[in-house]
Every structure is written in C-alpha cells, then in structure tokens.
Amino acid sequence: MALEVQIEKRLPAYTLSVAFATGAKTLAVLGPSGVGKTMTLRCIAGLERPDSGRIALNNRVLFDSAKNINVPSRDRRVGLLFQSYALFPHLTVAENIAFGLDRIAPYDRLTRTREQISALHLDGLENRRPRELSGGEQQRAALARALAIAPEALLLDEPLSALDTHLRSQIEHQLLDTLSAYRGAALLVTHNIEEAYRLGSDLLVLSRGQASAFGPKEEIFRHPPTVEVARLTGCKNFSAASNISTNEIEATDWRCRLRVTQTIARPATQVGIRAHQIDFLESRSSSDAADNVFLCWPISTSETPFRITLYLKLHNAPTANDQPDLQAEVFKEKYQRFKDAPLPWHVRLAPESLVIFPK
C-alpha cells in the first residue's frame, strides 16, 4: 500500500488513535469539527509528532516511535493544502508555487512551475500576489504549490470550505480532475457528507479521534456499522427495534412492524432509514401488495431550491405538540405530484432500504 498510518497522539479532550492503509486513490476523511481530522494530516506531513506509532509512504518509513525515526517535513515528499491556503503574502503566484523547489536546478524549477501554472489554469496570474487573487484562484495556487514538489502523498484539509457556493462547484470540478490524474495516495479532510462521497473513493469516518468506519464509500453509506456512523453519514431516522423473526422487526418508536431484507442474525437494537429513501406512493392501489406501507400526515415542511423536507407523523393525524416520527426528503418535482392529494398519504419504508443495528 502507498500510505500506511498507525498512530496515537494525546490531545486535551481525547486521544487520537487511527490506523489505516490506502493506495493510489482518494481517501475522504469525514467527521465533525474537532475529531482529529486535521491533526491526522499534520502528523502525516510531519508538522506534528505522534506520541507513538508508525507512518510509512511507499515503503519509506516517515515516523516510527519504536525506532526513533521522525523524517523532517520537507523530506517526506508530502504535499499539504491547508484549509486557509497559507500562501506567502509577499510572494507572487509563481514564487509561491516554486517555494518548495529550492533543491532542484533552476531550469527544472522553472519548468515544473510552468507545468503547474498551466495544469491549474493560472496562466496570466503568475506575477500577482495572493491579495490580488479571488478565493478560487488562491485555492488553485495553493494546490499547484502542493503538487509542484511531485509529492508521493497529497493531503487536502477542507479544500472547499472557504469558498462560496458558486466557486465551490467550479473548484470541486477542477479538484476532481486533479485527483483523477494524480497517481499517489490522496487524503481529503471534510465535514461535508456529499463532498466526501463525490471526491473520495474510500471513506474513513472519525469520531473523537477514533476510526468508526473505514472502507469503500458505497459500502459504508449502504451498510453503516453503527448508529453513530449512520448519523455521521447523514442518516436522520432511527427507532428502537426488537426481533420478531429472521426477517421482521418491531420498530418501537415508529409503532409498526417492518419486513427487512437484511438477515437478522443477532438481536436488533435499532433500525434506521435515510430520509431520501422514504417513498411516497402516489396512488392508493400501488400500496395494496407492498411491504411496509403506512399512513402518514405532514407536521411541517422545509425547503431548499431543489428539495422538500417533510416531517411526518405515522398512523394517526397529528395533534398539538406532536413530534414527527420520520424526516423525508423528496425532489420538488415529485412533491408537486402528491402534495395536494387527500390526507392521509401513503409512505413506504422499503425493506431493502432499512438498516438494522444489532447489539
């Protein structure tokens, strides 16, 4: 594997303890603020020293506490894109990009700088200083500087968080192209679930310094191993649960029995379903032979430009101060098709969409 990390570092609120190995692909490191994502990158880059453990890159040992090895940051061949970009304000774009190339011949330094200017679409900005650049231009200049040293690993710390919505979309497309062409191990830290899914191949979920899940992103989103990982990857609906049979459970908080496709080998404690997987049946006849179809009433709604979030009460019409049982998300086009239908509506919790969490 290209990058192998097994480290521990004591922090004021918890001990960071992570272990993973990743090859020539992009690993998205997902978690809320303050769980150790950035510290993990800084330890790999050599800007922080772990208390114990080992870090190796392409069979080169960068850190080994048992053997007292701690390679200096500038010798690790690791490119780091800081969240704040950290461009040197007194240097031009070209000088910033060339900053880490002082050990190579002047002609090679110039050639590599020009290559990165062209690759990151910075032509015409070479002589500008950071204060003369837009946020997107600063991000591209910082990424060019990280890539100019031909790093064997590329570390990206919240690379899109400082950008507005319009710029974020543009730069994300550029970043995806860059990561697709990059041949080393890449780690991308983010707290944005959709960003992690779009840009990463594998996923590492951190919670208070511990790895809660690690593996292919599709597998973790489809089958989160714990309720905590399900929450961190965006699942909003949970109910206490108990077994009825090998393919049926009682969802206590939702007051219903549910058929499931997941084989229940151990006692269930909770069941979950993602908001976008809740299906609204647009005709009563379509509910006749379907599993897990229930009456529902909307308590409230909220909207984004493209989606509607509905907070639903199951089985009975809501009364004053009732709390919703489920949170569902639908595209506005679909919502328009059933929003004026007589209440109650019919909602389906598809057996294949339910996730069972055992003891």
Strand order across the largest sheet: 7-8-9-3-10-11
- What's the total helix number? 9
- The whole-number mean of residue pLDDT values reads 91
β-strand percent reads 25-35%
Q: Over all CA atoms, what is the radius of gyration?
A: 25 Å
Helix/strand class: alpha+beta
| Extended strand count | 21
In terms of per-residue confidence, which ranges show pLDDT below 50 for 5 or more consecutive residues?
none
Distance between the termini: 33 Å
Q: How would you describe the shape?
A: elongated
Proportion of helical residues: 10-25%
Helix and strand element order? EEEHEEEEHHHEHEHEEHHEEEEEEEEHEE
Major β-sheet profile: 6 strands, mixed
Care to describe what's here?
With 359 residues, this protein is of the alpha+beta class. The chain has nine helices and 21 strands. The protein has helices spanning 37-45, 93-97, 106-119, 135-148, 165-181, 193-199, 217-222, 227-232, 332-338; strands spanning 3-10, 15-22, 26-30, 52-57, 60-64, 69-70, 78-81, 153-157, 185-190, 202-207, 210-216, 237-245, 248-251, 256-259, 268-273, 279-281, 293-303, 307-314, 326-331, 345-348, 355-358. The strands form four sheets. The protein has a six-stranded mixed sheet with strand order 7-8-9-3-10-11, with helices on both faces. The protein starts with a strand and ends with a strand.
